[in-house]
Amino acid sequence: MHTLIIAEAGVNHNGSLRTCYDLIDQAKSVGADYVKFQTFKTELCISKNAKKASYQLKTTGELESQFEMVKKLELSSENHLKILEKCESLGIGFSSTGFDRASVDFLIELGVDFVKIPSGEITNLPYLRHVGSKGLPIILSTGMSTMQEVKDAVRILEQAGSKKSDITVLHCNTEYPTPMEDVNLRAMLSMENEIGVKVGYSDHTLGIEVPIAAVALGATVIEKHFTLDRTMQGPDHAASLEPDELKQMVYSIRNIEKAMGDGSKKPSKSEQKNISAARKSIVASAPILKGDLLTENNLSVKRPGNGISPMKWDELIGSVSQASYETDELI
Known about the structure:
331 residues, alpha/beta
């Protein structure tokens, strides 16, 4: 079992290539499988009249429009190439979410391993049809969605040419940060059961416990926003992990993967040596002579466990002793 961990740098670079490099360094150092950015042409995605989301207003104020805010966070094609080179030099996977069809095509030209569909595009039929025709694995975030909307999106992707086996659906809540009572982690399992796809979880809660729980429930992909400093200016920093927290999340997920095991209930290799010391055997509770009747008055159950198991108690009671025993001696 290996959970794909995507460290979501997103737009937390604030338009700085130097910050992109620092984010990549941190993602690699904590053991993430991929570092992910966001790729878009603002003019293709956002109208001049679009209002900010409520969480964006809290973190960036009202002095600029959503268009103006996002335009400052747009990465150039040249910077994408430099980011890709940096990832390749460190041996960490590069990924990015394409928010428009032209950006999806550009990322595919760069050689991404999969196409990431953000939650906001799950009802964008032309976009879904375009992505589905590309023949690459797809990771689909489902924030704000009903089950029927997720089913419809998966159907459109399949009709466009995608194999269901190549689609991973991420449960997600798009409030930054997500209140714990709104996580609804069991919805991930509902999608797995009802749609028949691989599932994962894209997390916007504060802390690391929910993605760890998601892995224990069977998430195959975990996506989590991170930043160099939560106090930096920008829409997503406040709901992101700092590097030490991201490191702890990755470490904890890898431990949970080991802890899940194969599901077979049996003594583990490490605990087999404890069986004799911790379990009990049938012993003499008083001196017993050969030929005596074994009864509850001269038998007892005590450690160690390397004699006759107490599960044989009923078989011994009422039988004749075949030897003589001192008190506490194993029968």
